[in-house]
Amino acid sequence: MAYNISTMHIWRFFNGECECPMCKLKKKTECDIAESYLSEAVMEDAEREKVNKYGFCRDHYDLLYSGKNKLGLALQASTRLWKLDMKIKPVDVKQAVKTAKKLREEISDCIICRKIEFNMGRYFETVARLYGDDARFREQFKSVKGFCYPDYIRLVENAPKAKSYAKEFLQVLYEKQKSSAEEVQKNLKDFTMAFDYRSSSLPPKSASLSLVQARVKFYGEKPSLPERK
Ligand SMILES: [Zn+2]
Ligand SMILES: [Zn+2]
After folding, report:
1. In angstroms, what is the span from residue 151 Cα to ligand 1's centroid?
2. 79: number of CA atoms within 13 Å, CB side?
3. Looking at residue 1, what is its pLDDT?
4. I want to staple 13 with a disulfide (CB 3.0 to 4.6 A). Which of 21, 31, 53, 150 is the partner?
């Protein structure tokens, strides 16, 4: 159940319709990977072994719990719990402190986070490469509003991959980041103004969305599985 990155999704999300196209790519990747852990394929031995080894982080456990396969999740949770439980043994004080440290590392891991990170690393690189190689993509890039800060930083880090267009890529990123932050700033201001007792008119709709917009700007989008009927 390998997940292959596709430039098709890059073309699809790089437009002016969202706060951050990299977040849309991450959400799609995250959804596809999470859904694979709710499908039959996850019962394959190799995948079960990975879940036992790395487990799921809190956010991804919650994401899987919001899905439709509670039995599949229960089976995976059971073997993971068994694996962790095996590591807890009565030992002397020195050894216990050592084991606690190892255990903390172990419970901080996540198979879904690992797979997302692997795929997103390739997406960031591919975006920069596309910018360097494809004039049509450079044109389409103009319509993008901006990025969340975590994704802006990673795009900047990948700028050298745009080769001869690296400088232009950085400049475009910079301009988009500035103008989109300005827009969020304006909406936040409109929102706070609405609390002023001297203000008589209702704030525009964009103002009421300002805190959600700021949330995306700071941290990126929250993961969610698509609604299924
Ligand atoms: Zn983002
Ligand atoms: Zn995770």
Report:
1. 5
2. 17
3. 38
4. 21
